[in-house]
Amino acid sequence: MLNTDPIPAPNARLKDAANWRYLLKEFYEMYRHLPSGGSDRIRAHLRNAREAISRVQKANPEMSFDPPCNLPVTDHLGRALDEGRQDRMAPVVRTLERVAPELSWRYGYEKVPRGLARSYGYAEIAGPSGPIVTDEIILGVVLFAPDCTYPAHAHKGITESYICLSGAVSENHQGVYAAGSLIHNPPEHLHRITVGRDEPALLAYAWCGAREDLAGQKMNFSRPRGPKA
């Protein structure tokens, strides 16, 4: 769908950016209705995420847009959105589609790991750098091309969740997560993601943590150390 809606004017606030306001609402609804599977830790994270989103909604923060930017992986975005509209995550996928032309896709690393330059990118929805400016939480989407392997990494002081919007991924070879699934990564948890060979994967994510951790978060790739010879 071609988005013909105007980009919010400079100094606009969330209330002035209807599509972004609706997208934030869809994130809230995801974290309100997703099951915890009986896990107290996941239940607490779902609550923390939606309470942070609620605070952002009430604060009516400023909007700050970087110029729209695509990466090689965004060649797969149309397919990922098409697949997502057919599944249980259709409401958030359709709302995401409305703002897709305004997204600024990034790598997030000074030196992109080999193999990721054409198969990975993320776009932030809310966080210290915008577009919805907040220090309460970081929300965004990440897109993986088919057959992508996202190297092992961890987040200092950050509890992370992925919600699969379309496609399927595996984390640490411990299960397959399709549309509607949630992956929970506590702070310092080393995790590696692999993607199916035939379809891209589009995931929403939320990072919860202290304001200083959210503001200074950087990704570090690590490889497990083998036994010394």
Automatic annotation (TrEMBL):
Pfam families noted in UniProt: DMSP_lyase (PF16867)
Entry GO MF terms: dimethylpropiothetin dethiomethylase activity
InterPro entries in the cross-refs: DMSP_lyase (IPR031723), RmlC-like_jellyroll (IPR014710), RmlC_Cupin_sf (IPR011051)
Keyword match Lyase: yes
Keyword Repeat: no
Enzyme Commission (EC) number: 4.4.1.3
Annotated keywords: Lyase
Protein name per its UniProtKB record: Dimethlysulfonioproprionate lyase DddL
Protein's gene: dddL
